[in-house]
């Protein structure tokens, strides 16, 4: 696999207050889920303007073998298989039964609203809740009359 080194220093010079975003981009370009590989496979869906769903294929895992945690804008999904003492002789083993940890970087104000298992798929529901103070608002323009009234 070919890696590309990106230089984010121009971003640091041209924006103010976005250093956290630059650090996130830098971290994502360095990591690119190399430790995680492609297991387990997942989809990310946009359900509505501020609603998302992550669907992970977790065949072979039960609900009590999965752990979902959201902390500091990172969603961490872990699967830990319980030890199976049954001795088996596989002719072909195509179903992965290994432990995993998958991390998703969440944007500001995105929170997990629920999770459910359905036919070997783990669905994690997310929603962005922007605080009222952060939503766009109309600013009225006051003219010369406002300045004259203040002077009196």
TrEMBL record:
Keyword NAD: no
Signal peptide start-end: none
Keyword Repeat attributed: no
Xref: Gene3D superfamilies: 2.60.40.790
Pfam families: HSP20 (PF00011)
Positions of the SHSP domain: 33-144
Keyword line: Stress response
Family: Belongs to the small heat shock protein (HSP20) family.
Name of this protein: Heat-shock protein
